[in-house]
Structure formats: structure tokens, C-alpha cells
Amino acid sequence: MVRQPGYIRPTLKSTNTSPLVGIALLGAGVVGRGVLKILSEQADLLKRRTGLTPVVHHVVCRNLDRHGDLAGDNNVTTDAAAAIADPRVSIVVEVMGGTGVAGEYTAAALKAGKHVVTANKALLAAHGAELFGLAKENDVSIGFEASCGGGIPIIDALTRGLVGNRIDSLIGIINGTCNYILTQMSEQGWTYEAALAEAQKIGFAEADPVMDVSGRDTAQKLAILATLAFNEQVNEADIALAGIDSLKADDIRNASQLGYTIKLLAIAERTLGGLNLRVSPTLVHNGDLLADVNGGFNAISVYGHAIGHQFFYGRGAGQSPTASAVVADILGVAMGTIPHAFERLNVYPGTLPAARMLSHDDAVSRFYLRFSVKDKPGVLAGITETLGEHGVSLQGVRQDENDTNAIVLTTHTTTRRAVTAAVAEIDKQPHVVAATVVWPIFDRPEEFAE
Ligand code: HSE
Predict the structure, then answer these.
(1) 80, 284, 366, 404: which could join 441 in a potential S-S bond, CB 3.0 to 4.6 Å?
(2) Is any atom of ligand 1 closer than 6 Å to the C-beta of 297?
(3) Does residue 347 have a pLDDT over 60?
(4) pLDDT band at 19 (very low <50, low <70, confident <90, very high)
(5) pTM for the complete prediction?
(6) Which of 122-131, 345-354, 408-417 is most confident?
(7) Which of 175, 183, 216, 222 for a ligand 1 pocket mutation test, highest count of atoms within 8 Å of Cβ?
């Protein structure tokens, strides 16, 4: 095995030579093409900023016929093994997606002593421990800025800019596809299907959009962000999960009439009982910054003990924003800032304690409830009485004269346990005709900076 230099140190002395950074690009899809575009169009800028010249020696794709247009300027190949083994290559950029072949190539690259830059949160969620272990063993780094929040440098912020902060909570809109769908449904009245089809066309959606709409993509990103924010090992399976595929247009409309917007929120917060981690369609009050995050945009609210509230906002999906983060990692690895941060991330297997989790039933919030009922005397009284018996206090009640088969309630702050138990009883009442819809309402944490 030829050991690659840990990183390339640009010399401080004036020089006309710009060290080359040899790259093998695995994947010539939306993101891969975006990376090629930035590297070629911004070559002078990158050289002036970093003193380095990134050179893509190989573009690896699965099907040469589909990428003939790239062949003029690039060495396009299907031979990943040869590309990884090329001694000129010090950084392997994995933008293929998926956990199969992408995982094999990533492991092979690390074993060959190559640094890896990846946008693949699914791979890190499934095989992160093994891959970070291989990176450590082979003294190379993994850059994964593009895995969360598209072009927003949130990994850099959590691991460097905010390193002096105890993070108390992190709340994100971190799936562009879901946010685009929700925005088009609530603002343009599009159907769910039409909005999803357009998100796929624009290039936001995963190869399998079920990963987006089920909330899994969001949970995988939250697992990475929460691990870095709280320095406890958070896994996807630790996160309570509901996707937008179970959300009904009626609830988007009701929320809007109540002054809220429904967003797919990823929430990670430190509580006395442990970490509260959840991904769910959630009502966000229209006064909150998060309610104004529309289309393919992402945003992450971070609350740190020293900084108070900090809000990161930007394009969370799509070709150029994701490629922007990949290029940042390529140069970060080459300049040595990624290995530097990486050593301190403590992401190697066994180095972090398992997260101490708050039981999902103990999670506390306000809730939105929609009951489907027959219009009979005493129905509302039956519902409110049962809620009262479980200690659930009501904040608002709404029934439309034109739709007397739906009752919408909002609660004061309570536990999910109390709401679940009350709703289970209510759903057995004779005039309740369908399962009650329950979504949490987000209330901004109190902001303080010491
Ligand atoms: N499918 C993802 C999204 C792409 O829609 O946000 C970026 O991870």
C-alpha cells in the first residue's frame, strides 16, 4: 500500500507552483457533475484561496453510454478499483449514493490509504462506525459536510465554530424534498404527488424518494448532527420517526387557519431525562423563523450556552449547493483542516458513550389533535372529559360550521404518554369514526446566553 500524505501543506513562501490534489470522483450524477463544474469553473479562485490545484484524474460511473458528454474533458471509466489505486489520487469523492457498492468502494479507498469525501448520510448511518474505524486505522480522514444540510456548513460550525458551546438543542428542517412538497401543497395547493414529482425532477429527491418522505433521510442526518452536537453516539434507530407520507392536506389547511405552518422538523434537545430526539411533521407558529423556510431550503436552529440562538439557513439540496459542500471538504482535507477537526470529533467506534435517551413517551410539547366524529350531542364533551381525565389541558378548540364531522383541538404542554393514552380511549367512543390525528406543536426554546 502506498501511504498518502496526511494532507498537503501549502507553503507559506511565495511560489509559482501549486501542489496538485489528485481526485477520483465516484459518481457522475447530479452532485458529481456539480463538483466537476465548480472545480473547473472556479479553478483560479480555488488556487488563489488555497494555493492548491484539485485535479480529477478519474470520473467513475456505472454506465459509460449515459455519460458520453463528460468524456471530452475527463477520464470517464467504470473501473473504480483502478481509479482508487491510482497513486496520483489522494482523495476519493463518493457521490454515488446508496449503501451497497458505494460502501464497498469507500471501504476500499480508506484501506488503500486514501482520504474520502462523501455526501452519503445513508452510508454513514448504516456503516459509519466501521468506516470511521477504517479511517483511523489507515490514518486518513472522512469529510462529510455534504451529508447534512446541503450547502450549509453545519458540520464545520458544530465541530469548529461552536466548539466552545454546550449545545442545548438543535432544531432543523433538513430535507429539501419534504420542505418543497409541504410548501407547494400549502402555498400553491398542489397535490402531494405533483409536488413529489417536481422535487424529483429538480434533483432534490433521493434515488428512492421513500427515504425522503418517510423521514428516514432526515433521521439519518439528525443522527449525525446530534452525535456531533451532544458528543453521545446517536443512531437512526434512537429517533422517533414520522414522515410526511402520513400527513393529510386537511391538517395542513387546519394548521394554516390556526396560524401555523406544518414542517418536517428534526428535533434534538437535551433534557433532564436524556436526549429527546424526534422527526415528525410539526406545527410551527407563523412568527417563528422556521415557518418561513420554504421550498428546497433547509435551516438549522442551534441553541448554545454561550451563543444563545444561532440560525443557519440555505439551500439544502440540489446540484450546486451539495457540490459546494463537497468542494469545501476536498479543499479542507487537502489543507489539513478536516483531519485536524476529525481527530477531535471523537467519532471513532467506541470513543463516544451511547446516547442517554429520553423515552419517547416522556417527550413534552403542545399537540394538535383532529377528531373525526359523527355530529351528535355530547361528542365534544366526551372528548374533552377523557382528555381532562388524563391531565391534558386544552388551549384551543375549533369546529367549522361547514364541516361538523371534524373537531380540532390544541393542547397545553403535556407528555406524549398522556395524549396517546387519552386518544386511545377516545378512539373507542361510539361517535368517533376514524383514528385521531396527532401532531406535535413546536415552541421555540427559551433563548439565553450566559
Ligand atoms: N434528498 C435530500 C433532500 C438531498 O431532499 O434534502 C440532500 O440530502
Answers:
(1) 366
(2) no
(3) no
(4) confident
(5) 0.91
(6) 408-417
(7) 175
- DSSP E strands in 255-324: the ranges are 260-271, 274-285, 297-304, 308-315
145 lines ligand 1 (CB under 6 A): no
Confidence of residue 382 (pLDDT cuts 50, 70, 90): very high
> What rounded mean pLDDT belongs to the chain?
91
| Cell matching residue 446 | 427559551
Per-residue burial over 285-311, b if 16 or more Cβ lie within 10 Å, else e, is beebebbebbbbbbbbbbbbeebebee
Indicate if the pLDDT at residue 369 is higher than 90: yes
- Residue spans of the domains in the chain: they are 1-150+318-352, 155-317, 360-442
Name the burial class of residue 358, with classes exposed (0-12), middle (13-18) and buried (19+) by CB atoms within 10 angstroms of its CB: buried
Indicate if ligand 1 lies below 6 Å from the C-beta of 172.
no
Residues forming beta bridges with residue 431, ordered by sequence position? none
Cβ proximity of 242 and 280 under 8 Å: yes
pLDDT (0 to 100) of residue 11: 45
CA–CA distance, 116 with 323 (Å, rounded to integer): 15
Active site residue 136: no
Domains 1-150+318-352 and 360-442 are alike in CATH topology: no
Mean pLDDT of the 421-450 span:
93
Q: Which CATH superfamily is domain 1-150+318-352 in?
A: NAD(P)-binding Rossmann-like Domain (3.40.50.720)
- Give CA separation, 387 vs 197, 217, 394, 427, 437, in Å: 40, 34, 8, 12, 14
150 lines ligand 1 (CB under 6 A): yes
Looking at domain 155-317, its CATH architecture is 2-Layer Sandwich (3.30)
Using CB atoms within 10 Å of the CB of residue 231, give its burial: 0 to 12 exposed, 13 to 18 middle, 19+ buried.
middle
| SS3 label, residue 402 | coil
Closest ligand 1 atom to residue 205 Cα is 1
Residue 2 confidence (pLDDT): 43
CA dist 355 → 279, 300, 346, 427 (Å): 17, 21, 14, 35
What contacts 202, CB < 8 A, 6 or more positions away? Answer: 180, 296, 318
> Could you read off the pLDDT of 26-76 as tens digits, one per residue?
999 999 999 999 999 999 999 999 999 999 999 999 988 888 888 777 899
What is the tens place of the pLDDT at every residue in 231-253? 888 989 999 999 999 999 999 99
Helix (H) or strand (E) holding 383: helix 379-389
Coil/strand/helix, residue 170: strand
CATH topology of domain 360-442: Alpha-Beta Plaits (3.30.70)
